[in-house]
Amino acid sequence: TQLLEQSPQFLSIQEGENLTVYCNSSSVFSSLQWYRQEPGEGPVLLVTVVTGGEVKKLKRLTFQFGDARKDSSLHITAAQPGDTGLYLCAGMAGANNLFFGTGTRLTVIP
Amino acid sequence: DSGVTQTPKHLITATGQRVTLRCSPRSGDLSVYWYQQSLDQGLQFLIQYYNGEERAKGNILERFSAQQFPDLHSELNLSSLELGDSALYFCASTRGDRAPDGYTFGSGTRLTVV
Fold first, then answer.
1. Which of B43, B50, B97 to mutate against chain A (most A CBs within 10 Å)?
2. Residue A82 forms contact with B (CB below 8 Å)
3. Who has the most CB within 10 Å: A92, B13, B28, B39?
4. pLDDT 10s digits, A32-54
5. A55 inside 8 A of chain B by CB
């Protein structure tokens, strides 16, 4: 079983601050996905990164895939209350095995 | 609305009982995946069906079973329920049997075993 560890587990910040969430593994993944989950809902896909070193931007969110395709980071600039939620990374190993990380619960205080 | 429909939204049942959770995939999607989410285990993959056939199996207990019907909806059957089976159960769907571009999840079924 591939283990994806996310840090920090919990993060509470003030509106307007920047933050970075990390997703680490000892396994190599063919691609890595980031999801956000809100209470009472299923995870919603934010982005997929495929190439080692790849950087993708989604408005104030910046996603990076590590050069060795074992880790990833999510950076949020000027966080807003609407960014509050559980952020999950998920690595694709093999044809169709998606392993989810332990999650980072973010709270942005107005 | 993601297009993936799960029913019921909430379910409360007693230990030893059997329940069935239902999932209708997004229109045009042929694959259905079942996941269990608990506080201490995170999101755990249970099983995948593609066009009616089992395609991949994860950490699914022998007390649990699933199937996908000709109209592509899927059911997850949980039997001899234990307190530890209390969790959120999610269904996700994809167009093909592989998901390089990510899954579309339903809103989940919250199962409480008392």
1. B43
2. no
3. A92
4. 999 999 988 999 999 999 999 99
5. no
